[in-house]
UniProtKB/TrEMBL annotation:
Gene designation per UniProt: DpuGr42
The organism's place on the tree of life at top rank: Eukaryota
Protein name, entry field: Gustatory receptor
Lineage, opening ranks: Eukaryota, Metazoa, Ecdysozoa, Arthropoda, Crustacea
PANTHER family from the UniProt entry: GUSTATORY RECEPTOR, GUSTATORY RECEPTOR 5A FOR TREHALOSE-RELATED
Keyword line: Cell membrane, Membrane, Receptor, Transmembrane, Transmembrane helix
Organism: Daphnia pulex
GO biological process, one term: detection of stimulus
Transmembrane annotation, as ranges: 102-121, 133-152, 194-215, 235-257, 347-374, 386-406, 459-482
Length: 485
């Protein structure tokens, strides 16, 4: 992998004062630092935190969260729709560039607010004269996403410094995990995140094309500024289309950011937990004899005579110093991951709850529209009337399911880690000393009582089972709407 300059530090010259990656302190010395609390331990950990993730030995195939979010960061950076949230602005940029960037973001913010205000006014006017709720669904579908885009942009601008600190700390955590676990590869998200980017890009472009055709075919629609005759006579249709599609395009981009940034963050936390699990299994397979474990299992089926009990007592135990330091290191890393996940729940919670709530609302409205026009479509033997609603329903359903499943990997990996640790404790029980058993049992209790899970604003936990609740909620609301009609 090509080496990149770390944007979170003064420059590459900062790294030249330190040894090369293969001269970094070996892992057993890090463990000994934990046991002895040696003075050099802090300097060793500082080198681990300051080392570039791309330069870590034996993990060049790894991909960090920074690199996963790079396409979104580049999109927001070069389009100028957000201040830099994942990487800080370069200090070498000219003042004119920074001023122009702030002016463009302010104009975009005002444009979003103006179009959203217009859509809300049209929605309120339409509700007064609408014969049924279905007539207002197009107005709702045009206005609600603008609100979410407005909220996402506001959150990223208001908490920009918190976002920068979060991703900087996350980068340091990934570097520490990679240095402590050189054989663990955390690149499982490469193919997945490229696929997700491609699918979201196709859906965004297709949505903009469909909305553009709708503007040209129905210029008198109440959710367009061309609904007023004076506007149609004054402004040409291409300019009207541009006025509407510009905020809609940026809104769709904000919606993608609101979905993928939290999802990929939780997924990388799941990869970190998986790395700890693999490292624990590797340590036990290396330092604990599997042959003796098999012999102990065979003795378990026989009566406990003195000879068997004497064998249990003569089993060689692992070095308490080795295992104690290793478990403490994994426990400390797990606590660091837990703290970062809690920060993510708080930092991403507001716009993620709004984004998923709006997607759920739009899915319900679109499904209701499909059933509303289904009878006419069957009579006319044509799906042209319900096709736009159906395609939007499929796209939004995919976004909701994919973001939920990606984020739920964190909960699944934590449960798997707890099961693996429980199995190892049961398998090597007679080879562990009593303090080591108590330590592992305490760690198991920690995993059971406070397991890692994506929980935006601590309102609900993101697990695969939540999709069943969403399905029941959507079906209930659709039935209520159809009965009211």
């Amino acid at each position: 992998m090509r080496q990149q300059k770390d944007l979170f530090s003064p420059g590459l010259a900062h790294y030249r004062r330190y040894p090369s990656p293969h001269q970094i302190l070996p892992l057993r010395l890090v463990f000994s630092c934990i046991g002895r609390r040696d003075v050099n331990c802090n300097s060793a950990r500082a080198r681990i935190r300051n080392e570039s993730f791309c330069n870590v030995e034996c993990v060049k195939s790894n991909i960090s969260l920074d690199e996963t979010l790079r396409p979104l960061w580049k999109l927001t950076h070069y389009c100028g729709i957000l201040l830099d949230w994942c990487r800080p602005i370069s200090k070498n940029n000219h003042r004119f560039y920074k001023v122009s960037r702030f002016i463009w973001i302010t104009l975009l913010f005002l444009l979003l607010f103006a179009i959203f205000s217009f859509e809300i006014i049209q929605l309120v006017k339409g509700i007064e004269s609408a014969p049924n709720i279905h007539v207002m669904i197009p107005n709702i579908l045009w206005s609600v996403p603008l609100l979410v885009g407005f909220i996402v942009q506001e959150q990223f601008l208001r908490y920009r410094r918190e976002f920068l600190r979060f991703f900087k700390d996350w980068r340091a955590l990934e570097i520490e995990i990679a240095q402590s676990n050189p054989d663990c590869v955390m690149c499982q998200s490469r193919g997945m995140h490229l696929t997700m980017y491609a699918i979201h890009a196709v859906m965004t472009i297709a949505g903009l094309i469909a909305l553009g055709l709708d503007i040209f075919n129905h210029p008198e629609a109440p959710y367009l500024i061309s609904t007023y005759q004076i506007v149609r006579e004054t402004i040409p249709p291409p300019l009207i289309c541009l006025i509407h599609l510009t905020p809609i395009g940026f809104t769709l981009t904000f919606l993608v950011i609101g979905d993928l940034v939290p999802s990929f963050t939780y997924y990388h936390a799941a990869l970190a937990v998986n790395c700890l699990e693999k490292n624990m299994v590797k340590f036990c397979s290396k330092h604990l004899s599997s042959d003796r474990v098999l012999f102990v299992k065979s003795l378990a089926n026989k009566p406990l005579i003195n000879q068997n009990l004497n064998y249990f007592k003569t089993l060689p135990e692992t070095s308490p110093y080795e295992l104690d330091g290793y478990v403490h290191l994994i426990w400390k890393t797990y606590d660091n991951i837990d703290r970062m996940v809690n920060r993510a729940n708080s930092l991403f919670g507001t716009f993620w709850v709004c984004s998923q709530g709006v997607i759920l609302f739009m899915i319900t409205s679109l499904l209701y529209s499909v059933f509303y026009y289904l009878d006419d479509a069957l009579k006319m033997r044509s799906i042209d009337q319900i096709l736009p609603y159906l395609l939007n329903f499929i796209g939004l359903t995919f976004r909701l399911i994919s973001s939920t499943l990606i984020s739920s990997h964190l909960n699944q990996r934590t449960i798997q880690f707890r099961g693996t640790l429980n199995r190892l404790l049961n398998q090597h029980w007679f080879q562990l000393s009593k303090p080591d058993r108590e330590l592992l049992r305490s760690f198991l209790s920690r995993l059971s009582n406070d397991h890692l899970v994506a929980s935006p604003l601590d309102l609900y936990n993101i697990t695969p089972s939540i999709l069943l609740s969403v399905l029941g909620l959507v079906v209930s609301y659709v039935i209520v709407l159809l009965q009211s009609n």
